[in-house]
Design goal:
220 residues, Glutaredoxin, globular
Amino acid sequence: MTQTAPAGTEPLKIDFIADVVCPWCYIGWERLKAALALRPDIATEVTWRPFQLDPAIPEEGVDRAAYMAAKFRDPERRAQALQVLDSEAATVGLSLKLADIPISPNTNAAHRLIRWAQGVGLQAQALEAIMAAYFVELRDIGDPMVLADIAESIGMERMAVLQALSEGADKDAVTREHVMAVQAGVSGVPFTIFGGRIAVHGAETPERLAKALNTAVVEA
């Protein structure tokens, strides 16, 4: 995602570290877009960086209801967390079907598709289609066929994506990026870095993100 400004202006690099099955990341992405809209005069270049909340999930995924019940054992607290997420999602125009998601997937393959989409200028389209497929359409985004459908829907070559997924292309590269983020101290997402120096942890408000953006521009 690139926001242009007057000719000759070097875009400010923004790294958005996130996972596609993280609802706060979906909310945070929408808030980042709103923050950039507050400062259309600043040239920016946003790059999605992969993070996996649980890289140990098998490639075929696991039953989400059982997975979440094991992870958050108090059903009342789990229900309260869903209510908070529903409320926060509504502030950015999202309606997420969090209680109905059938599969918790391994997200390495989805991150690989986003990586390939970046190379052809379709990063935002890919990641937004993937998150909508997961949180709204209740599709298994760990399934190569689903990812190929998404790729085709945004203008990528379906068969090329299927082949790359089957061959494991860039699988290790995504894993390395995740490990690098962890080693750098990222323990939760979203995690946004403005200009390589100003970091914001969490799905902060557009106003706070815009403030971080302003600070990064001044320090640059």
